[in-house]
Amino acid sequence: MSKRDLKKYLYQLTKDQLEEQIIELYEKFSPVKVYYNFVFNPKEDTLLQECKLKISNEYFPIQTAAKKRKKPKMRRSVAQKYIKHFITLGVDPFVIADVMLYNIEIAQTFSSENIIKQELFYKSMFNSFEQAVVFMIANGILNEFKSRIESIHKETITQRWKNEPEFNAIIERFEY
Prior knowledge:
The chain is mostly helical. The protein has two domains: 1-41, no CATH class; 43-175. It has helices spanning 3-12, 15-28, 30-40, 44-59, 76-89, 93-113, 119-138, 142-158, 164-175. α4 packs parallel to α6, α5 packs antiparallel against α6 and α6 packs antiparallel against α7.
């Protein structure tokens, strides 16, 4: 069904029928429930803190009293799921950009303290960096995050990441 056909169909419904359908969607589909819960109670700060905790836990797992420290998983997918979820909910682009950069910054903190042999880690961080810059340009918020972007690039130089020239190419693109 096209959007145009959907609009025609919805226009034909009475207010009561519309309410009934929306309530049915709310009860049947979890994403609809999540969306409406966010719309009526947008706790962006709480979501942001929960997200940052999960991301940092990927690199610096929380140690429980009974067990010794878990091994870091370093999964980019955890941050990507939150970013996608935030975009779907319509969270403020500044919050989304903050999460994107935080993911890279926490990974850099981890790599400064640990030797990482997997090339995929560096490629993954570059993909995250590129995605963040593209997102910020698209939303017109690049200037607000320029210092953090440059700090990330400087850290790739300091840590001698092999793919630093790729980070540099991104920086050079938006300097013009």
